[in-house]
Amino acid sequence: MPDWLALSDLPPVSGTPERLHRGLFVCEVALPLAPHTLLLDWQPPGISARTLSLFLDERMGLVLLHRQGDQVTRKHLPGPLSTDQGTARILYGWNALADRWFLSFSRLGTGLEARADGRRPIVPDMADLGEICRSDGVGLRHPALLWFGVTQGNEPPEQAPWIGLQTPIETARGPVAAGNLRPGDMVLTADNGLQPILRVNRLRLPSRGSFAPIILRAPFLRQGSDILAAAGQLLVLHGPEVEYMFGAEEVLIPAEALADGRIARRDTLRAATDGVAIDLGLPELLLADGLKLLSHGLPNLPPRQILHPWEAQQLVSLMGRRSRHGASLTRAMT
Fold first, then answer.
1. How far is CA 14 from the centre of its chain?
2. Does pTM top 0.70 for this prediction?
3. How many C-beta neighbours within 10 Å does residue 164 have?
4. How much of the chain, in percent, has pLDDT values that exceed 90?
5. Is the pLDDT confidence value at 262 over 90?
């Protein structure tokens, strides 16, 4: 899938076209909001009037105002819109060749989306989009606006599993930082010994909202240091709680299920995060400083049972109760 061309608080990617004839503007917003909220308002001084404003109201709906010189469009997604507690995602997509645009609003995790479609979009200028993303620019941003970005795809770039660049991965020559691995390197796996890396995909993703990565804190999971991973990165848990609940020695669980503030926490301090996805072809368990992490790729025939969200929540709750009653998680998982 296409990568991000621009992200809030970061400079645009070099080599992007001057005009984006087909693209997608994505932003995420912390809910709830006060009525009549101006989320984004960019109106730089200059001879040629330019504006990009985003307004959200639970009853009125969502309005995007876009102006470039004598071209002005007002996109409206009528309300009511659900602005209860949670995180909202707003998408504005345009395709000048097809003469179409759309504006959508959804609350993440609900599966519900409201959408409006129309014709005659204005083709944004990439320089304008870069200026909007500047942290020291002239635009107004509401504190609830978690992040925003621009891509050329029809959907936001996927939230692929990945690990931080400094994650030590066991290889034929000893531990190597994940960011230094290359195709052809031999990495040690839990089940099948040394395996060659087919691809190493470097990713730059937002570090807030639904894209916020997880810090797996040492030594709660028996690792020697904190490890940064994508929220959806699968890792192995084992111990008496796992055997009691699932009748198995080991299970796979997404990193975000552990983010209770003690075992792990979300990292939202940066605008964006760099990571790598290591692809061995088939899913394998990489060894990383005492942890077992599932390699990148579709988890066809996963090497361990993957817990459903409700199962993961129950397991983490049970582990947390054991920890609070005096038994460390390190001992519990031996």
1. 22
2. yes
3. 23
4. 60
5. no
